[in-house]
Queue: 4 jobs
Job 1
Amino acid sequence: MPASPRPLACLFLLTSAALAMTAACASVDSGAMTRIVDSWKGVSVEQAKAQWGPPKTVQAVPGGTAYVWTDEVPVARPPGSGPRDAGLEPPQRLAQCQRKLVAGPDGTVTRGEWSGDGCCVQSLLGQCAKLARRTTGAG
């Protein structure tokens, strides 16, 4: 008797859904994080430090100084993936999002970049709003 096509169809649908979610996440990630980094260009890095807190590392780079912030976001486990016995809980996996702003000798941000698998999680949770540069109105 030939194998039922149903399991293959389910596998195909699940794989397609996973790929679609990954693509959507990458799109949200890229657009949001690029806008955030771009919002800091031409601004004093001191404003970024005041809004984001102290950077995790500071590095001398050609043409200035790189300020690096790293966030770690716990990754949710899929339902049913936890332990099946009374053993130890597996360690929590963390996703990272690294943001880097490079400031010239005068302290003005000239460029920036981001990387990591946790940036999308931050985007989807609405964390990006607090990362974009806040503008102050002239009064």
Job 2
Amino acid sequence: MVKYYKRNGAMKLLTISSGFLGLMYCFWGILGMHFTYNSLLNLFTQIFDLDGYLGYILGMFIAALTLLVAFKPGDPLPWHWLLLLMFSILLMTFVHVIAGFPIFVAGIIGLFSVV
């Protein structure tokens, strides 16, 4: 079942941009182009001296699921504002805060614009 929102186009655009940003940051992280603040997971890997590649692979999986929700709503995962907020928290944790922010905005838009 697919939910329809008043601002469905804007929500999809923000979700797709968030998924592509997540994939981009994960690819850059695997290639070694680190930023000053990667993610919340990077803080834990630095404290416990763990390798961060597992976090990047998990982040790529979450970003791919985000794109799948945007491109095929209702087929593998539902198109719902609560799921978008959960993906925003996961992207902020495993990828980068900038990658999770657009989908967070999309979830808030979906929360206030249910048809």
Job 3
Amino acid sequence: MLAGQFSYRAEMPRQFPKLSISEMDEQVRILAEKVFAKVLREEDSKDALSLFTVPEDCPIGQKEAKERELQKELAEQKSVETAKRKKSFKMIRSQSLSLQMPAQQDWKGPPTASPAISPATPVLPGATSQPTPAPYAMPEYQRVTISGDYCAGITVEDYEQAAKSLAKALMIREKYARLAYHRFPRTTAQYLGHQRVDTAPLEEVLPDFHPPPLPQEDPYCLDDAPPNLGYLVRMQGGILFVYDNEKMLECQEPHSLPYPDLETYTVDMSHILALITDGPTKTYCHRRLNFLESKFSLHEMLNEMSEFKELKSNPHRDFYNVRKVDTHIHAAACMNQKHLLRFIKHTYQTEPDRTVAEKLGQKITLRQVFDSLHMDPYDLTVDSLDVHAGRQTFHRFDKFNSKYNPVGASELRDLYLKTENYLGGEYFARMVKEVARELEESKYQYSEPRLSIYGRSPEEWPNLARWFIQHKVYSPNVRWIIQVPRIYDIFRSKKLLPNFAKMLENIFLPLFKATINPQDHRELHLFLKYVTGFDSVDDESKHSDHMFSDKSPSPDIWSSEQNPPYSYYLYYMYANIMVLNNLRRERGLSTFLFRPHCGEAGSITHLVSAFLTADNISHGLLLKKQQQLVSGIF
């Protein structure tokens, strides 16, 4: 119904649209490489990309810039062509704004309602405007209307250039979001559709989520797996390709799915990076964001009390019975300090002689674990547990990671906060179930805890699914996110992986197998029903000298102990998620979102990569500090 309302009729292309590299694209690529190199050189400094920014404490430069803009505007006022273009822009803007207002026949008000002219109604020269009645049900808010020449302060040429650049950036993001079945704002897609004069409106694309089982249904039922397909999967250049049979594999004719093209992706990323150096676009974004912030502040000042009054007038509704979802929580930190301390003391009091670990062939009891650490759980306090990540961990990833070790002991982390240990993750499952039970009792709280898949072994996925089913961790108030730490360099230095491609294969190949042949992987197929998406986590401030491009070594060649850069990780994770989502959508299964940690530290290129590949990001703290352009496109 909604899709029909917004005229999204055309089918999404089933193949990845490859670009033919033009001379202009090559120039953009060269400019982007300069930006990339500049960022890499100044990654640890506070003034990243200072070459392309003007310090605010430079009054002479500001005065000269204003004088140049004034001269350009004075010259434009004398131009007849400029006047025509401005009038055209006004009509386009008026027509677009009128789409946001409800139709007159949809407004139900009393016959005595006082008429009011909508500021969004287009007014043609020489035409008489019909007054439009204000909606009767609309709250009595004070409205802020900006009249006059909305291009004031910026030339028409600069406005055109900024509009084209921003529209192109949004179209690039829309393309990658649609291909991976990520969400894209409906209103933005509607207006971008007006720019495509040569194509039909696109169908709205949304991710597929598995509905929660009914109360009488068994959430651990393994009998509803669809039939096997017998497709073959092979990794090529770090991306998994699906083949219908052996013959198609020999002919190198993969199954009809959109497989990404690295050269096209790097060209698109180059366009976004080159946009950073575009002066008119930066100026427009800076002015636009300041305008919106000021407009919101004014609205808040005028209507804050009216909004509070309307909010509190809703019957049977307050903050405590509004449904709340915590989308950024790690499973190993989902319990509070007191909960963890209470659980540790309880297990020590009730089962001190239980075998909980094995070392060098010798079995170790819970009492022996604490004796080896020279501590008595009875003496533990919340402060001595030291698992609270406070202000002292800000921008200190090393300190943040240490907070996952209770009392600074990795032995307790392995015992209580891991899914793979001697007990099969029993203690961890019990604590997670206690947290989930509290959410269910509150009724209005939900969460998406993150569980880790490292890519060391293909058995990680089956083990995690087995932990989920064996300990019955399902809760109607919980969905799961899979986080992939970017620690290939650690595994490679320990000779656990031959190259980066093997890590990608260990992460994604079990998912492809469970999607193609779910009858043979029933436990993993069941667990994936309750997985929402993927996350990429690690210290973003780690410096990398490598510049990701289409000339970068492919994952099967990346065998050094150097860790790939952030952009490299994001592209290959997105590429495999995109292929997997299209395969699962074809089978009628749930799809996954890509929601990486991004923008907490590091360079601006992290945000650019996530702008193309991610459904949304966690953190994004650098958006306040980085250029207005990056904040604007986000």
Job 4
Amino acid sequence: MSGYVLGLGAFQLLHPIINISLSQGKGNVSSFSLLTNSNYVCSNSISKQLVLSLWSSTTITTTSSSCTPKLKTQATKSQAGSSSSWPQQQDQEEEEEEEEDFQVVTAIRSQFNDISILDTPNSRMLLLDATHNVHSILYKDQKWTGSYWDEFASLPAIVPKGPIAILGLGGGTTAHLMLDLWPALQLEGWEIDEILIEKLREYLALSDLEKRTVAGGILNVHIGDALSQSVNASGGFAGIVVDLFSGGKVLPQLQKVQTWLELNDRLMPNGRLMVNCGGIDEAADVIDGVVHPKNSSIDGTWVQNYTIKALSKAFPGKVGILS
């Protein structure tokens, strides 16, 4: 066995998710909740409602915290004020409405995805599939996302020198971060959706990553099945990032031990896998953009993550979990 495994997101969410932030919003969850991570806590969290109308037949509603990207928000602020400051308004709530402009720069349906790219004053975001999960975010004034992509960017520091594969390129956030931090890297990215790649080149600066940096680094984009036998490198990959989802769920192939053994064979000695295992409950159904979970948590414990179960069987004692 040549590699070690880092499993990201060692839990299953019981509600539909938007992967915007690693801090859970407060308040009543409506259609969507947030991907959470106990390692990241946002202070002064304010519960807000986020409403996106991306498709004529779909309205997405979620709760978000103050540290997440906002598109259109409504906030309620409780003010107890003294009688001198707020005469005749004691014990009353003052409602304040905050709005941040956003624009849907492109929205198209491909063979594999409902693709939407949103522009806000602070960021650009890629939303995919029937759940409209955020699969990528690029901030205009900073590199770090405060989400799991930052964890992926640490992989080059702990693997041998050599090419790194990104299985499930998404919007290219991981590739952007890696080449910014490690400009000499050779990245090999796989994405099955050709139309998505075209939109990323046009709106999320993917084409910039396909040009060699001064230090010689580059992202080579491959369109095709990320789990096919053709995904390989002479001498093996130094690292493999696995971020494969469909309909908000981890691909079912990743719940099989054999899949991980095959990926492990594509690593060079001392290479490593880094995996995003988070996602909606694998038993859930997605109907009209709304996730309907079939399982529930017990005392706040997430339902069994079958991807991590497969990883643990494939690599006993060698699976590290960031949750």
